[in-house]
Amino acid sequence: MASFSADLFGYDRYIPKASRVESIEIKPLGVNSYGYWGKGEERSGLKGEEKQLALSVIKESVEVKNNAETSSSEYYEKNSKFLFFSSVSKKEVMRGDIEVSTTFCMKNGNRKVRNYILRSKKAKELYNKLYATREFKKNIYALYTRDYNDIKEITWSGIETEYLNLTREEKKQFFDTYLSELDGLSYTDVQKTVPVGNIDISIGGTMGSENATQDTYYIYPSFKKTLAFLAQKGCAVNQTIDNLDISSIGVEGYDGNTGENIRYGITDKKRINKLKKKLVLQQMENVPGITVINGNMDIQVNYKNKNGENSIYCYSICTDDELQQLLKE
Questions:
Q1: DSSP reduced 3-state for 267
Q2: How far apart are CA 287 and CA 216, in angstroms?
Q3: Sign of CA dihedral 222, 317, 313, 329
Q4: Which of the four pLDDT bands, split at 50, 70 and 90, describes residue 228?
Q5: Hey, which of 34, 49, 146, 284 has its CA 20 to 30 A from 152?
Q6: Which residues are bridge partners to 217 per DSSP?
Q7: Whether the Cβ atoms of residue 50 and residue 108 lie closer than 8 Å to each other
Q8: Which residues are within 8 A (CB) of 326 and not within 5 positions of it... i.e. 6 or more apart?
Q9: Residues ≥6 apart with Cβ < 8 Å to 96
Q10: What is the pLDDT, as a whole number, of residue 40?
Q11: Whole-structure pTM over 0.85, yes or no?
């Protein structure tokens, strides 16, 4: 066990020869996909120039790896149906590190999976280039393997939620539209843009049922056609934190400077208007790759609508010190 943990056998440093690799499948950590499902487009992985670039970045990163704690690894056999995914680390992303699960699809038919942390200066270059290709996104978003008829429930989640009851034709129109706009999403967009809301889908059964798989897809401000479709179906896509009739904001958290728990209750309209511009829905904290959200403090926004009082939970898009400065003004 000790020798494996210390990687004495070079397991974590394993990189196959390029001549033996047919293609490479790379997934960032924290992806919102559970693996293959449906009978849609096949995933062929990265080939040619993209494959060579990926191999060179992985090789460079592994060579500077100092100990087993900077990388983890898993191995899936030849006929593995599902692929490995990790969890997001904003600190690593912000300083330029990117952790990935890499599947080497060998020419002899084997599949070898390793996880690497890409510390190379080329890591951002790699992602910016790969994220522009549909083949790369097909390794992240299971919806690309689409059999829309397997999707049993669809729910819009923004400030408020809305269940979508779509016909087979409407499902195809909606998801085709969404994927066409997802194709144009850049890695810079993913890191720096907060989505408007998200779609939760249930595959193979209704939400919460034993045989169902749930998946989440985020809707970005640039997805104009997708948002227009949702609006036609009664989803309040234009409802934002900024245009809510907010009655109060409550903030709870831990002050790292003093070591004390803090609590604020804000009812003054001027302070509310200043603070709400720095808030995002708490559910956006799980967006893969995003680096702008600070989840250290829990923020409850109480607002009024036609049904009376409601609440949503938020995080901030500023540092702890910046947030506390806003709270004290």
A1: coil
A2: 9
A3: negative
A4: very high
A5: 284
A6: 199
A7: no
A8: 271, 274, 275, 278, 318
A9: 119, 121, 123, 124
A10: 56
A11: no
Laid out side by side, the sheet with 197-203 consists of 161-164, 151-157, 197-203, 213-219
* CA 11 – CA 72 distance, rounded (Å): 10
pLDDT of residue 179: 95
Confidence of residue 147 (pLDDT cuts 50, 70, 90): confident
Q: State both tokens at 137.
A: 């996104």
Average pLDDT, the chain: 78
Q: Which of 207, 202, 196, 184 is nearest to 287 (CA)?
A: 196
What is the band of 20 on the pLDDT scale with cuts at 50, 70, 90?
very high
Which DSSP helix (H) or strand (E) runs through 225? helix 224-232
Give the N- to C-terminal CA distance of the chain in Å, as an integer: 55
Does the pLDDT value for residue 52 go beyond 80? Answer: yes
Structure token digits, residue 214? 């749930």
* Contact in structure between 294 and 282 (CB atoms under 8 Å): no
Q: State the residue for tokens 């900024």.
A: 242
